[in-house]
């Protein structure tokens, strides 16, 4: 990818300053990290056509990428006078993303569906009311059977209304890249039904001013029946069909290998993607880019072992012998890197445990400084006037004694980006209010929680890109692989079908459980 | 075959000589033993006295060396190659019988029918 030529839409990539690339990478890493941990409660998934090189300008691959990238790229630059450096562009796109208004496209689908269903519900009433309004005097009176039909019509409409409210009137949680096939099918079906009923109504009833009112009422009742059946179909297609598990999805995060297995039913790829993302936010530990790489000391030693080459034309025996010796020495030296890795890890563990011990002790001691004041105590001890605090003040009072230990611990485990002082104080206040023990307070910091824990609620969506080789409305199959890409990591999902189970039966008579003492041990010689 | 502890045991024995059969890497005799001072004597189906902790033959493989030599199921082994078998653990008994450098084991076995036969012949005038 480094040597590909890139042209027009991405021509801004050409005009970057090579020297500042390192700084740009580092800055972008921080920026995207902060973007990840801020805002957005909803998710939106957009598709990206396969085959295009994934151009994430804010990719955080870090400093070990080849820095001489720019020298070997051939680019065709556009004919613009001024060149915008990449930094400006990322800043602009970031501002744009954060300040876009709510996408109206998000609400288009539900709005359409709502209109259609309202129309469908009002139609039977219209069928009944129109003859009464237009040619009431000509109508034949209709006795008891009509009243029965009225009642059943009313109840069926009520049931339709309530179940539509219960099932379909929910705020959408994701926008999918392609049409949701089943939903479209159902909307088309409803539209066709209602339209054809109106057609027949117009031709057979309104035109000749039909006088048999009972027939009209029965006609309206049949429409309501049909709508009920369509709703049953909708229930089965949208809600029930995918409940029986049929496939096992393996979801692996590309950066640190965190993986989980999920069982899903028959879904299309895009719906499965939304399903996986739902689970991702509460099951996967939060992505911490600081925890990824081997320490630099180990990697650099590994790299410098092999740069032995001589460009001499006439190599004497002496020099080849020397270079061979050097290569052998380098090969032997290479063996030590795993050793160093092991010791480095042990040292890291020890450090983390030491800091953790200090933190736990500090928090325990801090919690002993305050206690909850009960109502009776206020009156019973007038001679010891204590200062009464609300939870916020109490939290602030004891925070100072544990702040240092907490900060050091967070730094050692590289979590300091996720917890600001304000958030720690808020959490402390929360724990104090709910009578939690120090251990419960620390639970949030000792283990990296799921990503959901670090989200702040916001109306904006979360942007994920679904990358797949198959069209995303096709349903899941064995061996399918698709990935959900975010700016700096991606989730790779593999689909395998669940095995077919052959369950056999074996009947054991409860009376058949009989035992004898074992005879003396018998040895054959 | 009752015995009183501390008193020498008297029994009518039969001498049986078994040639070990070579089967692959092992030398087998073709019978199974049970009993021993570390085993439970009450389980022994062949002994008359249920406190007898001696070594008994529990099974004979048909056509094997023991079968041909005349060993019968239920025999109590008193001696093997001169070594006593009345007061040994099960494992010791097994070891005495399966020594690799011996081709032949000479057993002294006793059974109820032997004693009956002797008594019968003694009471007959």
Automatic annotation (TrEMBL), chain A:
Location of region: Disordered: 1-88
Short name of any one Pfam family annotated for the protein: Strabismus
Residues annotated as transmembrane: 107-129, 149-168, 180-200, 220-240
Low complexity biased stretches: 70-83
Subcellular localization(s) per the UniProt record: Cell membrane
Keywords (A to Z) from UniProt: Cell membrane, Membrane, Transmembrane, Transmembrane helix
Keyword flag Protein transport: no
Comp. bias regions, Basic and acidic residues: 34-43, 58-68
One of the record's GO cellular component terms: plasma membrane
UniProt xrefs under InterPro entries: VANGL
Membrane topology value: Multi-pass membrane protein
Presence of keyword Plastid: no
Comp. bias intervals (Basic residues): 15-33
Family recorded in the similarity comment: Belongs to the Vang family.
PANTHER family noted in UniProt: VANG-LIKE PROTEIN
Name of the protein in its database record: Vang-like protein
Lineage of the species this protein comes from: Eukaryota, Metazoa, Chordata, Craniata, Vertebrata
From TrEMBL, chain B:
SUPFAM superfamilies, per the entry: PDZ domain-like (SSF50156)
GO molecular function, one term: protein kinase binding
Native source species: Xyrichtys novacula
Keywords: Acetylation, Cell membrane, Cytoplasm, Membrane, Nucleus, Phosphoprotein, Wnt signaling pathway
Gene Ontology BP terms: cell-cell adhesion; establishment or maintenance of epithelial cell apical/basal polarity; receptor clustering; receptor localization to synapse; regulation of signal transduction; Wnt signaling pathway
Membrane topology term: Peripheral membrane protein
Primary localization class, coarse: membrane
PANTHER family according to UniProt: DISCS LARGE, DISKS LARGE 1 TUMOR SUPPRESSOR PROTEIN
Source domain of life: Eukaryota
GO cellular component term of the entry, any: basolateral plasma membrane
SMART domains tied to this protein: PDZ
PROSITE patterns on file: PDZ (PS50106)
Stretches of the chain forming a coiled coil according to its record: none
Localization (cell): Cell membrane; Cytoplasm; Nucleus
Domain PDZ: 15-112
UniProt name for this protein: Tax1-binding protein 3
Short name of any one Pfam family annotated for the protein: PDZ
